[in-house]
Design a protein that fits this description.
CATH topology of the largest domain: D-amino Acid Aminotransferase, Chain A, domain 2
Structural class: alpha+beta
CATH class of the largest domain: Alpha Beta
Bound molecules: pyridoxal-5'-phosphate
Radius of gyration: 21 Å
CATH superfamily of the largest domain: D-amino Acid Aminotransferase, subunit A, domain 2
Number of domains: 2
């Protein structure tokens, strides 16, 4: 790996207490190009603009995938990643679906570790602070032919983050018209276009006062699938229910971790389809205790209300919240506060 250190750090100009998510980037980035049928020697270089031919394939046909993960600093200054191999596996699943060549595991892992250690001053300790890591690949071949590119760029950029969605009201709109994904499509892949396609329906929901959309199945809009960047859990009585992952739903790493920890806490977890009607029925019978989202950005976030068929439903806050217990257990592993019986925490 070639490394060029940035001699002009900008860290002194950053106000770490006032960060807008994803708008500030560290001093370095990781770059690896694919050409002539192979990934070339990776580089870490100063963070900078890149130049692209206007015909670069990703700009026209959206052959682009990404990952989202975080590094955390403990009180002793050690930096940790959380289940990074899962991100590598998922990246390559996304690549396969989008006809992008898979990225080698050792380039991914060594690239992440080296990049984070070079920019480790940017990872701040303390609850909710992290360094958001964004690996991504896009088709860079200059060509408007509607066929898979022969050239790609893999990059990792890093952005210091505080926990977001900190505000305690979190209302979602249950999708009744638009869909995020359909059977046989690319919903399970972290394909760039999956996200761009949500902006319009999400902005309509936000105009009505909701923070996000919870997507339902594209056929009937009856079954709960997931939110824009989170999987969804519903607690009915003392049972936690979450939809099975399938070819429409992203296989979230926070979701998997929450399922494992919940089971180990003795919580009954059901991985099954759940309809919005069942949720409303449970709410009316006072059996609906919690709904929450799970994803890297927020870890776990309680949903305080939802809109469906022009009616708003409110959830009461409860004392023994699974959302709070699971968030605490996951973040204590991430920040090296608790034991990690699962070996999920990887030192940088
Ligand atoms: C569509 C979607 N669902 C769920 C998730 C949660 O996945 P993870 O827990 O791996 O961040 C994400 C975020 O990456 C996402 O983009």
């Amino acid at each position: 790996m070639k490394i060029e250190i940035n001699k002009k750090t900008k860290i002194d100009r950053i106000d770490f207490n006032n960060l807008d998510f994803g708008e500030t980037f560290t001093d370095h980035m990781f770059v690896c190009d694919y050409s002539n049928g192979k990934w070339n020697t990776p580089e870490i270089i100063p963070y900078q603009s890149i130049s692209l031919d206007p015909s670069a394939s990703a700009l026209h046909y959206g052959q682009a995938v990404f990952e989202g993960m975080k590094a955390y600093k403990d009180v002793n200054g050690k930096v940790w990643m959380f289940r990074p191999k899962e991100n590598w596996l998922r990246l390559n699943k996304s690549c396969e679906r989008m006809m992008i060549p898979g990225f080698p595991e050792d380039y991914f892992m060594k690239g992440l570790k080296k990049l984070i250690s070079i920019d480790s001053e940017w990872v701040k300790p303390g609850d909710g602070n992290s360094l958001y890591l964004r690996p991504f690949i896009f088709a860079s071949q200059p060509s408007v032919q509607a066929s898979p590119s022969k050239e790609y760029k893999f990059m990792i950029i890093c952005s210091p983050a505080k926990s977001y969605y900190s505000n305690s009201v979190f209302n979602v709109l249950i999708a009744e018209k638009y869909s995020r994904a359909a059977d046989g499509g690319v919903g399970y892949a972290k394909a760039a276009g999956n996200y761009g396609a949500q902006f319009y329906p999400t902005s309509l929901a936000q105009e009505q006062g909701y923070q996000q959309v919870v997507w339902t199945d594209a056929n009937e809009h009856k079954f709960i699938e997931e939110a824009g960047t989170m999987n969804i859990f519903v607690r009915i009585g003392d049972t936690l229910v979450t939809a099975p992952t399938n070819n429409r739903i992203l296989d979230g790493i926070t979701r998997k971790s929450a399922i494992q920890i919940a089971k180990d806490m003795g919580i009954n977890v059901e991985i099954r389809s759940i309809t919005i009607d069942e949720i409303i029925e449970a709410l009316k019978n006072r059996m609906l205790k919690e709904i929450f989202g799970a994803g890297t950005a927020v870890v776990i976030i309680p949903i305080t209300g939802f809109g469906y068929q022009n009616t708003d439903y409110k959830l009461q806050s409860i004392k023994d919240s699974y959302a709070i217990r699971l968030k605490k257990a996951i973040t204590e592993i991430q920040y090296n506060i608790s034991e990690d019986p699962y070996n999920w925490r990887i030192e940088v």
